[in-house]
Amino acid sequence: MNVAVIGANGQLGSDVVAAFQGNGDSVVPLTHAEIELSNHESAAKCLGGIRPEVIVNTAAMHHVEKCEQEPEKAFAVNGLGSRNLAIQARELGAVLMHVSTDYVFDGRKGNPYVELDAPCPLSVYGNTKLAGEYFVRATAPKHFVLRTSALYGKQPCRAKGGLNFVELMLKLAKERGEVKVVANEFVTPTATDELAKQIVALSRSGSYGLYHATAEGKCSWYEFAAKIFELTGTPVTLRAAGPNEFPAKVPRPAYSVLENEGLKSLGLNRFGSWEQGLARYLEGRLAPASAVTVR
User: Fold this and answer.
1) Catalytic residues, which ones?
2) In a 3-state reduction of DSSP, which class is residue 218?
3) How confident is the model at residue 293 (pLDDT cuts 50, 70, 90)?
4) Looking at the domain assignment, is residue 205 inside a domain?
5) In 3-state terms, what secondary structure has residue 203?
6) Which of 25, 111, 211, 273 fits 262 for a cystine, CB–CB 3.0-4.6 Å?
7) Is residue 164 part of a domain?
8) Are 65 and 123 in contact (CB under 8 A)?
9) Counting beta carbons within 10 angstroms of the beta carbon of residue 41, is it exposed (0 to 12), middle (13 to 18) or buried (19 or more)?
10) 290 lies in a domain?
């Protein structure tokens, strides 16, 4: 298939490019230099020239605090940008695969969220990503919307200062010898290469719709850090941060664990446990990059 990957130089996008290439597909990697999501003409010109069969959108305005400070820009990229892509996908007859977030929920459920649960975002970021979901679902007949959580991968994440959570923990442990992490926020850490494999597998299914796509299980950020240090044998004193010790500048869901109910109902779930994904990531940190094959 001819696949266009938007945000191809990002943490997830780089692995999506590798996954489709490893699967034998022809991939056109697109960055901000080639396509401006918030500009309809830019999206039309770029994608009209490529005429892809599949469009994968991993790009977004991710920085939660900047979204709060610049809501118009966040909506232009995350909301209207998604609409622009959906319009092009519809006109080209292409499949649009759009990556969304656990931040569309408020975290008050206390149990894993399924696709039928009603969204209730707490932030501008969450609201603009939810708007993007609705634009895609209403505009592109052949669409996949994938919500995911707590991503980490080999490629640096610019929205987080270049370090994912795993690398940040290892850096702080080396520099300080003691690390404090919140223990009252729960997520499902998900490796970007595993999500990329899931995206490729789902692209072949024709079962369009909304899906949750994360590793299996859940943990607090504290438990995530503890497992990182355990698997790497890192000497460090890990402490749970006290209540309000690290107050968030923007409201975030305290429990944003997702259940892959849709994928499992179709027999398409490709994820293992978050612990397995972390172990594989740590094993491959220093290994040379190689092509990803989806089976």
Assistant:
1) 125
2) coil
3) very low
4) yes
5) helix
6) 211
7) yes
8) no
9) exposed
10) no
Place of tokens 């820009």: 73
Q: Dihedrals φ, ψ of 209, to 5°? A: 150, -160
Give every CB contact of residue 185 below 8 A, 6+ residues apart in sequence: 220, 221, 252, 253, 254, 255
> Do you know the residue count of the chain?
295
CATH number at residue 243: 3.40.50.720
Give 152-205 as a DSSP string.
E-SS--GGGTT--HHHHHHHHHHHHSEEEE-SS-EE--EEHHHHHHHHHHHHTT
Question: Are the C-beta atoms of residues 202 and 146 closer than 8 Å to each other?
Answer: yes
58: which residues sit within 8 A by CB, 6+ positions away?
5, 6, 7, 8, 10, 12, 13, 16, 99
* DSSP letter assigned to residue 285: T
What is the rounded distance in angstroms from the CA atom of residue 285 to the CA atom of residue 64? Answer: 27
> For residue 199, what are its two tokens?
């995206």
Residue 237 · residue 292 · CB < 8 Å: no
Q: What is the pLDDT of residues 67-113, one digit of tens each?
A: 999 999 999 999 999 999 999 999 999 999 999 999 999 999 989 99
Burial of 201 (0-12, 13-18, 19+ CB in 10 A): middle
Residue range of the domain that includes 43: 2-284
Note the pLDDT tens digit of each residue in 5-42. 999 999 999 999 999 999 999 999 999 899 999 999 99
Question: Coil, helix or strand for 55?
Answer: strand
Strand ranges, E, within 120-177: 143-148, 151-152
What is the total count of domains within the chain? 1
Beta carbons of 224 and 165 less than 8 angstroms apart: yes
Distance from C-alpha of 54 to C-alpha of 279, rounded to nearest angstrom: 31
Cα separations in angstroms, 88 against 52, 240, 254: 10, 47, 36
